[in-house]
Amino acid sequence: MTDTTRSAFPVGTILGYPRIGRRRELKKAVEAFWGGTITADELEAQAAELRGVTRERLAGLGLGRDDASIPESFSFYDQVLDAAVTLGALPSRFAGLADASGHVDLAGYFTIARGEGEHAPLEMTKWFDSNYHYLVPEIGPETSFRLASDRIVAEFEEARAAGFVTRPVIVGPVTFLLLSKPSDEAPEGFRSLSRLADVLPVYQELLARLAAAGAPWVQLDEPALVSESIEDPRSEVLDAVRSAYAALGGAAERPAIFVAAPYGSLDDALPVLAASPVEAIGLDLVRGTVPSGLDAATASALAGKTVVGGVIDGHNIWRGDLEAAFGKLTSLLALSPDVAVSTSTSLLHVPHDVDDEPALSDQLKSWLAFADQKIGQVATLAVGLVDGHEAVQDALRAASAALADRQAAPGVRDTAVRARTAALTESDFSRGDYGDRLAAQEEALGLPFLPTTTIGSFPQTGDIRRARAQLAKGLISEAEYLGLMRDEIKRVVDLQEEIGIDVIVHGEPERNDMVQYFAENLDGFAVTQNGWVQSYGSRCTRPSILWGDVSRPKPITVDWSTYTQSLTEKPVKGMLTGPVTILAWSFVRDDQPLGETARQVALALRDEIGDLEASGIRIVQVDEPALRELLPLKRAAHADYLDWSVGSFRLATAGVRDETQIHTHLCYSEFGVVIDAIRNLDADVTSIEAARSRMEVVHDIQTSGFDHGIGPGVYDIHSPRVPSVAEVTELLETALAAIPGRQLWVNPDCGLKTRGYDETVASLKNILEATRVVREKA
Ligand code: GLN
Ligand code: ZN
């Protein structure tokens, strides 16, 4: 292909669209397949139908039918897994799933994602600083690469048959390798990036296939270029970008290449991409800024490419400042005459449609833009780019008016809340000396050596969900609901007493979700009805909308906790979600620094903790599973983040007496990365995931000199497997070998809400038996 035959990049596009469906159709279809009620062919047919409906909708919203502006961003489970199966890059334990050509069928694909029997699934981890989780490919010297799936080509052809020319999307080679981890076979020090040269021919073959199918453009997502890898030196990453795009760009038969770099700014990767033969580069101009101060070579190279300005926030739901977005596009015109408008990231992170939310007030809705509204914004800005500002000024003004209305609306700024945060001093953030606290708590609580507890939730049974649904529909009264929940709490307390657990929880039956529950009970939040967002696979969450100043109209959990404490002599652990996690798992206002919003949430929680303490609750857990997730991708931003995130946790928890024990819970095992943050939380006890990695984390705990209470999980609650007494005993002994016994707590990895009762009871009994064994030996 020569330049003259290339079709122009579309003036307006998006990097990706939610694939779960407006009514979670994909979730339902996939789960039906897993449950055996539909066949693979039926699942394929339903997915094809969903893709068809999606393309029609995107065209209806203003994306072109035949100019490659509609991204082909469907996935049955995860786009990184899709790249792995496309490249045939599977760990050896899954070799049996592939046929002679390396192809894996749908059932096999899901086995890799979810595990089966002896086959542990691929590990799952957070996708950049979002709450989406991807599957981590495993690469070693033994991994063979070949084009093992033509799904990407087939979906393009499917679209074509329906009258569309779409833009295939795949994770780019550098990001694919950077996100991979070494396989079991890989020697110490192996880095996946060393396999780049072996991956590129497969990408070349794929590009050739797409070109043959008639695809004018392909999108290669390279978000890893905006973050700083810990293992891979930046110079090697940049070298990889250079050679990857020289190779792909140099291929004879290929579509035009659009490299998208969502979630941050490209920085020193921009000159490298500019110097490469790719035709279009996508910049995230919500997180990053319009590049300036470019060297002459980069400037002249960029001038020959399409610069795609990601000015519409793909990560949050605000209608935002369209005038400012248009301004950014205008300044891009100084870099290249060929500018297009896009979203900053895939719209995967936002719900489908504001118009699907009849319960939200019209005023709030006028401030919002979900995926479909954002496409409308892209379409507007595209018109502006082509026809000039005047052509779209009404739409830009309407957005500005909505923004002004939002700034002035009651509740967005609450004087009482502002006065409280303004009056905070150093001492509001600190508790007394840890040694004094420990002595006071040992005295007050009288817990045994290796105290046992759980993370908070017990299985959410069908009965519990039904009761909640009936209450929502008005089929049962508030009093009846309360009665049902109290019965459930009593059952859970009795069960814990019977098993012999030392610190009791109430089981969280009244909570639909650990963030939404608090959002529903605090001022400043709204909740959606259909605002589902994919978290991983078929799992979706419905983030709340934090739109205004946050305060607590009345106590939230106190009645539940005191009722629970009335049922037992043992200490009951109050259970709250921390400020960072509430922010991370909500759509948060973007009109003030996150730290300010976090302090408001922290003060509401501080009042709650004070009320719990005053009514006799001696232990309070404040969950912060999202502490790691919000860690900025650029190291330069870490200090500021850790300052406000850790500060808000401390603000929430520092108001209690020495003898009141504060716990926190973190959902991951990457202790080392955030050890200073964890230490600075100054929680008396921290529970952390550890079972899947067989207690690897205790090594980090030991070397870090962490000296507060710590409960490395001994039960992997992500699996239905029941750990044996011997297994838990071994884990506890591993922990004890590294950590002084006085610090050690015994608990599962995380909450039990997704587990069934049978395996939960069996597992907890084994944990208690193992604890007895280890206590006796000590
Ligand atoms: N307390 C919560 C529970 O047990 C914690 C959940 C989490 O860490 N994600 O469910
Ligand atoms: Zn957890």
UniProtKB/TrEMBL annotation:
<feature type="binding site">
    <location>
        <position position="689"/>
    </location>
    <ligand>
        <name>Zn(2+)</name>
    </ligand>
</feature>
<feature type="binding site">
    <location>
        <position position="667"/>
    </location>
    <ligand>
        <name>Zn(2+) 1</name>
    </ligand>
</feature>
<keyword id="KW-0486">Methionine biosynthesis</keyword>
<dbReference type="GO" id="GO:0009086">
    <property type="term" value="P:methionine biosynthetic process"/>
</dbReference>
<feature type="binding site">
    <location>
        <begin position="24"/>
        <end position="27"/>
    </location>
    <ligand>
        <name>5-methyltetrahydropteroyltri-L-glutamate</name>
    </ligand>
</feature>
<feature type="binding site">
    <location>
        <position position="508"/>
    </location>
    <ligand>
        <name>L-methionine</name>
    </ligand>
</feature>
<feature type="active site" description="Proton donor">
    <location>
        <position position="718"/>
    </location>
</feature>
<dbReference type="Pfam" id="PF08267">
    <property type="entry name" value="Meth_synt_1"/>
</dbReference>
<dbReference type="GO" id="GO:0032259">
    <property type="term" value="P:methylation"/>
</dbReference>
<keyword id="KW-0862">Zinc</keyword>
<feature type="binding site">
    <location>
        <position position="750"/>
    </location>
    <ligand>
        <name>Zn(2+) 1</name>
    </ligand>
</feature>
<feature type="binding site">
    <location>
        <begin position="539"/>
        <end position="540"/>
    </location>
    <ligand>
        <name>5-methyltetrahydropteroyltri-L-glutamate</name>
    </ligand>
</feature>
<feature type="domain" description="Cobalamin-independent methionine synthase MetE N-terminal">
    <location>
        <begin position="13"/>
        <end position="333"/>
    </location>
</feature>
<dbReference type="GO" id="GO:0003871">
    <property type="term" value="F:5-methyltetrahydropteroyltriglutamate-homocysteine S-methyltransferase activity"/>
</dbReference>
<feature type="binding site">
    <location>
        <begin position="455"/>
        <end position="457"/>
    </location>
    <ligand>
        <name>L-methionine</name>
    </ligand>
</feature>
<feature type="binding site">
    <location>
        <position position="629"/>
    </location>
    <ligand>
        <name>5-methyltetrahydropteroyltri-L-glutamate</name>
    </ligand>
</feature>
<feature type="binding site">
    <location>
        <position position="750"/>
    </location>
    <ligand>
        <name>Zn(2+)</name>
    </ligand>
</feature>
<feature type="binding site">
    <location>
        <position position="508"/>
    </location>
    <ligand>
        <name>L-homocysteine</name>
    </ligand>
</feature>
<feature type="binding site">
    <location>
        <position position="665"/>
    </location>
    <ligand>
        <name>Zn(2+)</name>
    </ligand>
</feature>
<comment type="similarity">
    <text>Belongs to the vitamin-B12 independent methionine synthase family.</text>
</comment>
<feature type="binding site">
    <location>
        <position position="126"/>
    </location>
    <ligand>
        <name>5-methyltetrahydropteroyltri-L-glutamate</name>
    </ligand>
</feature>
<dbReference type="Pfam" id="PF01717">
    <property type="entry name" value="Meth_synt_2"/>
</dbReference>
<comment type="pathway">
    <text>Amino-acid biosynthesis; L-methionine biosynthesis via de novo pathway; L-methionine from L-homocysteine (MetE route): step 1/1.</text>
</comment>
<keyword id="KW-0479">Metal-binding</keyword>
<feature type="binding site">
    <location>
        <position position="27"/>
    </location>
    <ligand>
        <name>5-methyltetrahydropteroyltri-L-glutamate</name>
    </ligand>
</feature>
<protein>
    <recommendedName>
        <fullName>5-methyltetrahydropteroyltriglutamate--homocysteine methyltransferase</fullName>
        <ecNumber>2.1.1.14</ecNumber>
    </recommendedName>
</protein>
<feature type="binding site">
    <location>
        <begin position="455"/>
        <end position="457"/>
    </location>
    <ligand>
        <name>L-homocysteine</name>
    </ligand>
</feature>
<keyword id="KW-0808">Transferase</keyword>
<feature type="binding site">
    <location>
        <position position="131"/>
    </location>
    <ligand>
        <name>5-methyltetrahydropteroyltri-L-glutamate</name>
    </ligand>
</feature>
<keyword id="KW-0028">Amino-acid biosynthesis</keyword>
<feature type="binding site">
    <location>
        <position position="623"/>
    </location>
    <ligand>
        <name>L-methionine</name>
    </ligand>
</feature>
<dbReference type="GO" id="GO:0008270">
    <property type="term" value="F:zinc ion binding"/>
</dbReference>
<dbReference type="InterPro" id="IPR002629">
    <property type="entry name" value="Met_Synth_C/arc"/>
</dbReference>
<comment type="function">
    <text>Catalyzes the transfer of a methyl group from 5-methyltetrahydrofolate to homocysteine resulting in methionine formation.</text>
</comment>
<keyword id="KW-0677">Repeat</keyword>
<dbReference type="InterPro" id="IPR006276">
    <property type="entry name" value="Cobalamin-indep_Met_synthase"/>
</dbReference>
<feature type="binding site">
    <location>
        <position position="689"/>
    </location>
    <ligand>
        <name>Zn(2+) 1</name>
    </ligand>
</feature>
<dbReference type="InterPro" id="IPR013215">
    <property type="entry name" value="Cbl-indep_Met_Synth_N"/>
</dbReference>
<keyword id="KW-0489">Methyltransferase</keyword>
<feature type="domain" description="Cobalamin-independent methionine synthase MetE C-terminal/archaeal">
    <location>
        <begin position="450"/>
        <end position="771"/>
    </location>
</feature>
<feature type="binding site">
    <location>
        <position position="585"/>
    </location>
    <ligand>
        <name>5-methyltetrahydropteroyltri-L-glutamate</name>
    </ligand>
</feature>
<dbReference type="InterPro" id="IPR038071">
    <property type="entry name" value="UROD/MetE-like_sf"/>
</dbReference>
